[in-house]
Amino acid sequence: MKRIAPLLLSLAVVGSQSLAAGEAKNIDAPVEAPVPPKLIGYFDSEFIPGQTKWRVHDAYRPAPRIITPGTASTPKRPGQPPSDAIVLFDGSDLSGWSGGGDKPAQWKVENGYMEVNGSGSIRSKEAFGSCQLHVEWAAPTVVKGDSQARGNSGVIIMGLYEIQVLDSFNNRTYSDGQASAVYGQYPPLVNASRAPGQWQTFDIIFEAPKYDGDKVVKPGYVTVLHNGVLVHHRRKILGRVAHKFAAKYAPHADKLPLMLQDHGNPVRYRNIWFRPLGE
Ligand code: MG
Known about the structure:
The chain has 279 residues and is mainly β. The chain has a domain at 86-276: Sandwich (Jelly Rolls). The protein has 1 helix and 17 strands. It has one helix spanning 4-17, and strands at residues 47-48, 51-55, 86-89, 97-98, 108-110, 113-115, 122-128, 131-138, 153-157, 161-165, 200-207, 210-212, 215-218, 221-226, 229-236, 256-260, 268-276. The strands form 4 sheets. Strands 3, 5, 6, 8, 11, 14, 15 and 17 form an 8-stranded antiparallel beta sheet that branches. The chain has a 5-stranded antiparallel beta sheet with strand order 4-7-16-9-10, with no helix packed on it. The structure holds magnesium ion.
């Protein structure tokens, strides 16, 4: 018995460290099951409704993976992506991108950004579906054209679902086609546009649609923050992007490249990364 005593004592210490004030009443009796000393939490609490495997504060629930968060961008310098992000463009070159017909992407790259130059839309070599996606863009400083002809480009997720890029600073267009609209489907909740030439951010949570053969069994959903402001809160995507037609779904692969649109205006991009979404 003497030899066991220190072990019991150490368990008691670990147990008491894991309890916040006021929580002790949830434990009615000492835990009798063999408990590895570093487990922190509870073994006898109720199961969480809808989560058949886990109890409330379950000591066996695995700890989330540790990552290093990124840093915010400034007008002059892009921030650092989170440590587990897949970087699609870091400002140095277009090696991660293809142009039309799988030729190398031809957009201009200088000073840490890429710029649309009329050579056609580009696609990431990386294919992905559900994700957290970060994109920074700037409309041309020289203001030219109006409505859809001013600073038009597009972040087209999976090459099919477009979040509109447009200079919407003092530039009226149809509402479901302004900056950060789900093009042709939903205007943003507010117009959070910055002036032309200033760097703007999209932070997008995209849930890819799911198909069973030709049938959509789960539509896509998208949440968008434009310059840190919520502009879409889990919008149900109605189908592939279309101009002047109602969007419709058509089956596609689970993972597809990201497309950046060349709409003939010299829009700039920098600091593009994504993180695949787990279930
Ligand atoms: Mg566009």
